[in-house]
Amino acid sequence: MKLAILTDIHANREALTAVLEDQAARGCDAIAVLGDIVGYGPDPAWCVDRVRRLVAEGAICVKGNHDAAACGPGAPMNPTARKAIDWTRTQLDAAQLEFLAHLPMTADLGDVMLVHASAEAPADWIYITSELKAVGAFRATRARVILVGHVHVPLLVSAEMSGTVREQKARSGLPVPLLRSRRWLAVVGSVGQPRDRNPAAGYAVYDSAANELTFRKVPYDCAATARKVRAAGLPESLALRLLSGD
Amino acid sequence: MKRPETGMEIDGFTLGEKIHQGGFATIWEVTHALYRTPLVMKVPTILDGYDGPTIVGFEVEQMIMPRLSGPHVPRVLGTGDFAVMPYIVTERIPGGSLLQRFKSAPLPLSELVEMAARLAAAVHALHLQHVAHLDLKPDNVMQRETGEMVLIDFGLSRHDQLPDLLAEEFTIPMGTYPYIAPEQFLKSREDPRSDIFALGAMIYEAATGHAPFGVPEKLKAVRRRLWRDPVPPRALRPDLPEWLQEIILRALEVDPARRYQSAAQLAWDLTHPAAVTLTARGRKVAPDGFLTVLKRRWAARRITGFPPPKSLAHQIDRAPILLVALDLSPEGEPLHDPLMLWVKRMLTLQPDARIAVVNVIRTAVLGLDLGTDDTGNSVHVSRLVRLKSWAAGLDLSEAQLTFSVLESSDPAQAVIDHAAAIHADHVLMGARGSGQARRYLGSVSSKVVAQAPCSVTVIRVGAAVETAPQQPAVAEA
Question: For chain B, does the N or the C end have fewer beta carbons within 10 angstroms?
């Protein structure tokens, strides 16, 4: 199986379209969405519909904190994110909100675990920003490969047999063999609001036969999305962030 | 976790006799129903409980070896999971390692140079695949019956495009003390030029019978090579030519920036002794004096490392070898100036490049070819003279240029083979015109473009573009 892992789409239609094209061109035969379909971006309805169609075709999707906030009280958020979520709610119909509300928190694919934030307490939306923050996730599950999003900056961490957890440098576009002698956790970069100083849309490919993971970046027309953010009256900082990728 | 034993079956492999017991691994003869070539299995000796360094070293091998290809590495046919029994199965390279041959050092000169050039070729082939070996020593090199050197044991290696599992694993420098480069002592794990240093140490040892820095037993003694230069090889073996000492000592320079910048350039010098520029390094007959060494030792206090290259690929690319195929026939002459212009442009971008200028004498497929022309001059010599006269316009030092006149009934094949032999990174050649015959019968340049083992740039003379015949304008009614 060649699994395309998309996360943090954040209502960015242009980025989602570009990533879906790229994964298809690379022969991916399965898709997982790690949550945060909405929030921040200008096209929540379109993106929810697109992901719903993917799920109908067999894709897996788990819930992110913005998805939870769009259809319920949700966890506390910074003012910008809150403004965007309040606007998002006005853009979604009942069926779309229903879809978000019923997304599962985690999903299991054999030895692979999918969760938006961290495996130890999925609803606490913990940010795995370093190897230290990954220790809890490794303790919470026995899965060999843990795939998460939420942070918007890609990170690869391995846990050795001895239990030592270390970051492993992975360059975008180059496959990393996920040695079976270790366990691995990958924070996949964001499709719709990258923060790794590269505005191109991020995602990852997990090839289960070759046992390799590849972080990928796909350029898209972020200026068009930024224009839509402004036209929708969303905070200017959200438009600027798309252009700088920071 | 299972332990290997004769008769054991795992993933279709059947273990035969144990053929080697090393410190960290055992090597077994194995067979498999699907493979007819002789195979060996390497199994790490993992101590009970946690054995970090052995495990990580073996993980590195399992990660890197299956990605390598070509005659200079053993072909991998299977790897085993740590959950059952970790192993790597490769083809069996007959014979032992170079260790045996090093025992009879000093080696005869011709054997020494051939071995050194083959070693450098193997290391270059590895570097081209983004891997620095970082533990080169006679024990880790085998030789195929066809002559190619095969590098083994990648437990300390570094793949430029993969995570470095060893990066934080050890607090002490890794490598084998007699061959370890100064920057490795300072804990660098990203410089392919560390392999050039190890090559230099091996050639020195094969040439003299002594390791250039002795055989230190304690890590502290390794530090000395930051300031203490080895005894010049010619002091130990006076019949060694100066050019070879120059090559060895250049490979052993303390600062990686002063060594050969690629193994291909080292191989180049070994195979073109006349092109080696002799410096004081090649001529010295004794180690540097007390005061010089003392000064270096003082300066070494401050050295904490040497700047590593941006990447392995970038490092190899910095010192490319360009092959310029020059057509000396009258039809080829209009291309001489444009070719010169392009070579100069390349040199502006890559001033460290080496240029190999080549001309091919086309010989008849059958029958005798006379090496002399009608007036009795050697064709070979006259071609060389003309190549040199063309290259004079480049204004390069002898060390950066070589000239070869090849003979072949198939000039394209000769250029392709020569490019492979000198590890060329780029071929520059002209294409004569674009006539109909050439289009259908194929030209020398098109064959080189299709089959050369590297990039090829074909230069054309601008005016030679043929335009399609004009369609007669349709008369308007």
Answer: C
Predicted confidence at residue B83, as pLDDT, reads 82
Q: How far apart are the first and last CA of chain A?
A: 32
B443 and B400 in a common domain: yes
SS3 A30: strand
* Interchain contact, A160 vs B161, CB within 8 Å: no
What is the span of the domain harbouring residue B87? 9-91
Please tell me whether residues B213 and B275 are part of one structural domain.
yes
Instruction: Specify if B473 maps to a domain.
Output: no
Q: Which residue of A has its CA nearest to B57?
A: A181
**What predicted TM-score, i.e. pTM, was given to this entire model?**
0.84
Question: Minimal Cα distance from B159: which residue of A?
Answer: A176
ipTM above 0.95, yes or no: no
Q: Is residue B156 part of a domain?
A: yes
User: Which of A142, A161, A178, A182 has the highest number of chain B CBs within 10 A, making it the mutation to test binding with B?
Assistant: A161
Give tens-digit pLDDT for B91-108.
999 988 999 999 999 999
DSSP H/E element including B37: strand B35-44
Examine the domain organization and report whether B18 and B128 are in the same domain.
Answer: no
- Does residue B52 share a domain with residue B137? no
Please, which residues have CB within 8 angstroms of residue B181's CB and are 6 or more apart in sequence? B175, B191, B193, B194, B197, B198, B256
Bridge-based pairing state of the strands B35-44 and B87-91: antiparallel
Question: How far apart are the C-alpha atoms of B342 and B324, rounded to whole Å?
Answer: 10
End-to-end CA distance of chain B: 92
Identify the structural domains of chain A with CATH numbers, from first to last.
2-244 (3.60.21.10)
C-alpha closest to that of A214 among A188, A240, A196, A182: A188
CATH number, domain with residue B53? 3.30.200.20
Residues B297 and B331 reside in one and the same domain: no
| Residues B183 and B142 placed together within one structural domain of the fold | yes
